[in-house]
Amino acid sequence: MRILIVEDDENLRRQLIEALTGSGYVVDQAADGEDGHFLGDTESYDAVVLDVGLPKMDGISVLERWRREGRDMPVLLLTARDRWSDKVAGIDAGADDYVAKPFHMEEVLARVRALIRRAAGHASSEIHCGPLRLDTKSSKASLDGTPLKLTSHEYRLLSYLMHHQGELVSRTELIEHMYDQDFDRDSNTIEVFIGRLRRKIGVDLIETVRGLGYRMQHGG
């Protein structure tokens, strides 16, 4: 799962990056509205954390442009505590949720998890696929009740496939949602990680659709 943070406060941006990275997300960052808009317009994200008060282009304008351009990724707005008008403007502009500063980092993490789940059609923090269980709150997975030992890449791959059960997911889409914009993206690495995952969860849960990509089987 890949997140974009657009925040001009360097200290807060670093804290957000550390918290989200520690929860298993890949994180891209921008320090002003213009860079943030460009990344959101040219890269694929599972969610965006967007500050309202940004230099060069404010967060509301960034969000309005994304929505006009058909970018529908979930957006969590960071607003000033006393600016209720920002919250109203943000929701009208297409924000999915907001958090007022100052905030607890755990609240941001919980809201990001919820936005990603809802976008994929899941209501619970636990996602099931047959004997597989993914706990998005703890960033852990288990098979038949036994915890799985997964690398960060394997967890991100499994998480994306489980959020999109039953859907055909191309290798390009997986690469876009697993790596930040600076990563050397080689589609062959996806095959390697799929192979490793199958050795840990069994070969039947992930279907290869030749020439098109992969599909996580619906398993209840």
TrEMBL record:
CDD domains recorded: REC_OmpR_EcPhoP-like, trans_reg_C
Chaperone as UniProt keyword: no
Keywords, alphabetical: DNA-binding, Phosphoprotein, Transcription, Transcription regulation, Two-component regulatory system
Extent of the signal sequence: none
Modified residues (4-aspartylphosphate): D51
Any single GO CC term annotated in Swiss-Prot or TrEMBL for this entry: cytosol
DNA-binding region extent: 124-218
Any Pfam family matching the protein: Response_reg
OmpR/PhoB-type domain segment(s): 124-218
Molecular function terms from GO: phosphorelay response regulator activity; transcription cis-regulatory region binding
Swiss-Prot/TrEMBL GO biological process terms: regulation of DNA-templated transcription
Domain Response regulatory: residue ranges: 2-116
Superkingdom of the organism of origin: Bacteria
InterPro entries noted in UniProt: CheY-like_superfamily, OmpR/PhoB-type_DNA-bd, Sig_transdc_resp-reg_C-effctor, Sig_transdc_resp-reg_receiver, WalR-like, WH-like_DNA-bd_sf
PANTHER family: REGULATOR OF RPOS, RESPONSE REGULATOR PROTEIN CARR
Protein name: DNA-binding response regulator
Species of the source: Aureimonas flava
